């Protein structure tokens, strides 16, 4: 879908839908929202709905950032402690490496 | 372009492509030369992993022939182009050397190749000084080690003084055994031609290297790999390890009565004398190791004792007490913390032996009159009768054994002495004593003199066996002097005959209440056939006689006697089952072949292959450690054997010329440069397409 051809209220509605969907533990939707509406929010000449779109984009960006930090730190913690956690770590995993602890 | 030219261009392209694929296969075949051998693999117990594993894609090392210790020093101290793969001879394959290689790490030593050059070898055993150190008889439950062997004391007093214990070490590199001369020549030749000169330039030139693939899936210990295998998230269903399991074989001297309600009836007044030995052996390398002296001699003696008693006491009518019977049991998996005997005792304790499917009453430990365990008889002329305490039974048995052993009439020249106390050999009997030290257990074992215990070299040369192939009837008893012209008195067959006869005569005296007066002794021809089958070829007269008449001949190799896992060959228990069944069975001439299909009736090929119906008594019991049956078993408790074997997808080795680092980097850089240039070229061509295709109208090209 080419967003530049959509009317402004439709853009706002789309942006809000994406922002709301992100709350269903879907940080990638927030990330997509940021990429997709970044230009609309900050580059385009002002129009009435732009302030709200801008707000949603900024909130989505913050959400994405928080998720990224949380995921990266969890992955680091898990990967460095997996062997030490023993059975607990195995129960958390779907793929267990072959031939090592 | 004219259509003919286009077609020609396409043909040329196709032709080039097809030749290119043919060439690529040839290149691979030219690059690699396969090496046949046997690999070391990973086994795990409740606390450790042992054995070897390669890296996931295969470990590669530069060949280096180690002839003397100095060659090893050179590799460890100043390796010019690591990692290396030392080619080691058995006499240098010592604990000290291997631990140094392990310490150097896989960056310096990535593969170890053991070559079959035995000229300087004096001993080769990788079992512990105290085999089954943690599963034998203990003084009290808090001890972790057995009281029957002191591993920290004088090595000469242990049960395997030549043992290096390498079987219980974990190596970070694969160890590959190369047995065939052809393959050893290939390796030596490649080493001489490409590696063994100008060591300063090793880092700069192509070197002959070996790649060994022996990647093991399991890790850490049995608890972890069993948990991962049974894991609910294990969607792929991949197995990490399998418990070691096999089959114990047992047979009774007389058939037991079938009983209807077997759940409630314990075999009340039945009394059993158990004669036992072990079935299995092990070694460091997959599929090798015959355990000739370590365990096969014991099995040969048990077989002959069973056969002789069957012929001397054909029916229970000859017994002083008709409730008596002899139970012959051959335990599997004894090399790995007594798997078979632990399970047997566990089954007896839970009244699960024999299994309900046999429709016979369960036998409990109270039904046992005594247990005579045949251990390792390294020296068949000097035997000790081990007991925990001095009992009237032990004294009487020793006296009876010695009466026949020393009798001038038979001239057996066997010396049997008593040994009372905790210095008990690592045999199946320890499982019984561990359950209850008061059980009447007697063990026949000689002073250990096997320098190749649990190794690939415990073979027919170790027991000095030569097949006489007399082609005579081996199913009858022989007169004392009958076979003197076939075997000399020091032959293995005669040694086995002597011990078997003494034991059988003693058991005859106990069972019948009369001294044995006959002149017939066990037949050394049976021992001859037995050893031929188990050491040289399964396609042999004894195994043929013990199969059904039309069954296919056994393979030309001897049966593998390592316990293995579920789905393993289990051929040794199969052959032992049929052989014991045949030798202990009673002919049923009245039964026709058509009616002889249901056990206990079995139609054997027999001595001359014509077929005969016989009433058999043999059966299997499951040799799987109780640790795998008990819910929430504590793997670290040490109560039962916890051995598992890792799974693997491939064991292979091949040699090739490994290019130097400089060469590899150059090749990669050229590749990258060509890649970039090709991109630029395509870009230029596509932006200047009008030059090439000037006759195509511009509107069509868009």
Automatic annotation (TrEMBL), chain A:
<dbReference type="InterPro" id="IPR019379">
    <property type="entry name" value="Gamma_Secretase_Asp_P_PEN2"/>
</dbReference>
<dbReference type="GO" id="GO:0035333">
    <property type="term" value="P:Notch receptor processing, ligand-dependent"/>
</dbReference>
<dbReference type="GO" id="GO:0005770">
    <property type="term" value="C:late endosome"/>
</dbReference>
<keyword id="KW-0914">Notch signaling pathway</keyword>
<keyword id="KW-0472">Membrane</keyword>
<dbReference type="GO" id="GO:0016485">
    <property type="term" value="P:protein processing"/>
</dbReference>
<protein>
    <recommendedName>
        <fullName>Gamma-secretase subunit PEN-2</fullName>
    </recommendedName>
</protein>
<dbReference type="GO" id="GO:0055037">
    <property type="term" value="C:recycling endosome"/>
</dbReference>
<dbReference type="GO" id="GO:0034205">
    <property type="term" value="P:amyloid-beta formation"/>
</dbReference>
<keyword id="KW-1133">Transmembrane helix</keyword>
<feature type="transmembrane region" description="Helical">
    <location>
        <begin position="56"/>
        <end position="77"/>
    </location>
</feature>
<comment type="similarity">
    <text>Belongs to the PEN-2 family.</text>
</comment>
<dbReference type="GO" id="GO:0006509">
    <property type="term" value="P:membrane protein ectodomain proteolysis"/>
</dbReference>
<feature type="transmembrane region" description="Helical">
    <location>
        <begin position="17"/>
        <end position="36"/>
    </location>
</feature>
<dbReference type="Pfam" id="PF10251">
    <property type="entry name" value="PEN-2"/>
</dbReference>
<dbReference type="GO" id="GO:0070765">
    <property type="term" value="C:gamma-secretase complex"/>
</dbReference>
<keyword id="KW-0812">Transmembrane</keyword>
UniProtKB/TrEMBL annotation, chain B:
<dbReference type="Pfam" id="PF05450">
    <property type="entry name" value="Nicastrin"/>
</dbReference>
<dbReference type="GO" id="GO:0016485">
    <property type="term" value="P:protein processing"/>
</dbReference>
<keyword id="KW-0472">Membrane</keyword>
<dbReference type="GO" id="GO:0007220">
    <property type="term" value="P:Notch receptor processing"/>
</dbReference>
<keyword id="KW-0812">Transmembrane</keyword>
<dbReference type="InterPro" id="IPR041084">
    <property type="entry name" value="Ncstrn_small"/>
</dbReference>
<feature type="domain" description="Nicastrin small lobe">
    <location>
        <begin position="39"/>
        <end position="218"/>
    </location>
</feature>
<keyword id="KW-1133">Transmembrane helix</keyword>
<keyword id="KW-0914">Notch signaling pathway</keyword>
<dbReference type="GO" id="GO:0007219">
    <property type="term" value="P:Notch signaling pathway"/>
</dbReference>
<protein>
    <recommendedName>
        <fullName>Nicastrin</fullName>
    </recommendedName>
</protein>
<dbReference type="GO" id="GO:0005886">
    <property type="term" value="C:plasma membrane"/>
</dbReference>
<feature type="signal peptide">
    <location>
        <begin position="1"/>
        <end position="24"/>
    </location>
</feature>
<comment type="similarity">
    <text>Belongs to the nicastrin family.</text>
</comment>
<dbReference type="Pfam" id="PF18266">
    <property type="entry name" value="Ncstrn_small"/>
</dbReference>
<dbReference type="InterPro" id="IPR008710">
    <property type="entry name" value="Nicastrin"/>
</dbReference>
<feature type="transmembrane region" description="Helical">
    <location>
        <begin position="665"/>
        <end position="685"/>
    </location>
</feature>
<keyword id="KW-0325">Glycoprotein</keyword>
<keyword id="KW-0732">Signal</keyword>
């Amino acid at each position: 879908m080419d967003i530049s051809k959509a009317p402004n209220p439709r853009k706002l509605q789309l942006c809000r839908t994406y922002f709301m969907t992100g709350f269903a533990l879907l940080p990638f939707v927030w990330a997509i929202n940021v990429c997709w509406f970044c230009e609309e929010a900050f580059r385009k000449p002002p129009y009435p709905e732009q302030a709200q779109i801008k707000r949603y984009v900024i909130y989505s960006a913050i959400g994405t950032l928080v998720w990224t930090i949380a995921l990266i730190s969890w992955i680091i913690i898990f990967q460095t402690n997996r062997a030490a956690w023993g059975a607990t770590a195995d129960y958390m995993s779907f793929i267990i490496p072959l031939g090592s602890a | 372009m004219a259509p003919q030219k286009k077609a020609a261009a396409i043909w040329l392209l196709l032709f080039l492509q097809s030749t290119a694929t043919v060439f690529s296969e040839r290149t691979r075949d030219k690059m690699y030369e396969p090496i046949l051998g046997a690999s070391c693999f990973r086994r795990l117990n409740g606390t450790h992993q042992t054995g070897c594993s390669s890296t996931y894609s295969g470990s590669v090392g530069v060949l280096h022939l180690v002839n003397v210790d100095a060659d090893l020093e050179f590799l460890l101290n100043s390796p010019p182009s690591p990692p290396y793969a030392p080619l080691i001879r058995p006499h240098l394959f010592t604990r000290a050397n291997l631990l140094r290689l392990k310490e150097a790490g896989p960056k310096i030593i990535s593969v170890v190749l053991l070559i079959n050059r035995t000229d300087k070898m004096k001993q080769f055993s990788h079992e512990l000084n105290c085999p089954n150190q943690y599963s034998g008889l203990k003084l009290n439950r808090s001890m972790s080690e057995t009281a029957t062997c002191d591993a920290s004391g004088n090595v000469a007093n242990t049960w395997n003084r030549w043992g290096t214990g390498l079987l219980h070490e974990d190596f970070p590199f694969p160890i590959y055994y190369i047995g065939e001369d052809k393959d050893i020549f290939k390796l030596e030749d490649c080493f001489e031609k490409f590696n063994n000169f100008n060591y300063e330039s090793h880092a700069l030139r192509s070197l002959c290297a070996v790649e060994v693939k022996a990647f093991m899936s399991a890790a850490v210990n049995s608890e972890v790999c069993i948990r991962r295998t049974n894991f609910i998230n294990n969607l792929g269903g991949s197995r990490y390890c399998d418990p070691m399991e096999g089959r114990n074989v047992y047979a009774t001297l007389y058939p037991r009565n079938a009983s209807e309600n077997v759940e409630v009836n314990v075999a009340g007044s039945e009394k059993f004398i158990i004669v036992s030995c072990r079935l299995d052996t092990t070694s460091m390398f997959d599929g090798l190791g015959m355990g000739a002296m370590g365990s096969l001699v014991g099995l040969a003696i048990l077989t002959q004792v069973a056969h002789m008693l069957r012929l001397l006491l054909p029916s229970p009518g000859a017994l002083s007490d008709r409730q008596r019977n002899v139970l012959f049991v051959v335990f599997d998996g004894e090399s790995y913390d007594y798997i078979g005997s632990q399970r047997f005792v566990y089954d007896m304790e839970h009244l699960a032996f024999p299994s309900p499917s046999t429709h016979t009453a369960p036998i409990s430990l109270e039904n046992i009159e005594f247990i005579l365990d045949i251990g390792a008889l390294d020296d068949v002329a000097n035997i000790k009768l081990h007991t925990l305490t001095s009992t009237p039974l032990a004294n009487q048995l020793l006296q009876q054994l010695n009466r026949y052993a020393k009798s001038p009439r038979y001239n057996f020249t066997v010396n049997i002495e008593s040994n009372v106390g905790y210095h008990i050999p690592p045999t199946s009997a320890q499982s019984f004593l561990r359950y209850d030290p008061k059980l009447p257990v007697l063990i026949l074992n000689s002073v250990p003199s096997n320098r190749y215990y649990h190794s690939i070299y415990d073979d027919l040369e170790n027991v000095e066996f030569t097949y006489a192939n007399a082609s005579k009837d081996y199913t009858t008893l022989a007169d004392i002097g009958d076979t003197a012209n076939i075997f000399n008195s020091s032959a293995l067959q005669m040694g086995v005959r002597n011990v078997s006869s003494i034991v059988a005569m003693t058991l005859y005296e106990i069972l019948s209440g009369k001294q044995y007066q006959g002149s017939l002794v066990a037949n050394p021809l049976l021992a001859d056939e037995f050893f031929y089958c188990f050491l040289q070829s399964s396609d042999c007269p004894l195994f043929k006689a013990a199969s059904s008449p039309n069954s296919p001949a056994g393979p030309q190799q001897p049966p593998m006697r390592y316990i293995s896992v579920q789905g393993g060959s289990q051929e040794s228990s199969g052959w032992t089952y049929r052989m014991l069944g045949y030798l202990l069975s009673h002919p049923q001439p009245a039964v026709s072949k058509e009616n002889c299909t249901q056990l206990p009736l079995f139609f054997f090929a027999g001595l001359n292959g014509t077929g005969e119906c016989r009433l058999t008594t043999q059966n299997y019991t499951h040799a799987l450690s109780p640790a795998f049956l008990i819910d929430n078993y504590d793997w670290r408790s040490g109560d039962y054997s916890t051995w598992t074997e890792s799974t693997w997808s491939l064991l292979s080795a091949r040699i090739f010329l490994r290019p130097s680092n400089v060469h590899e980097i150059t090749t990669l850089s050229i590749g990258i440069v060509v890649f970039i240039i090709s991109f630029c070229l395509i870009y230029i061509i596509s932006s200047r397409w009008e030059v090439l295709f000037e006759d195509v109208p511009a509107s069509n090209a868009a």
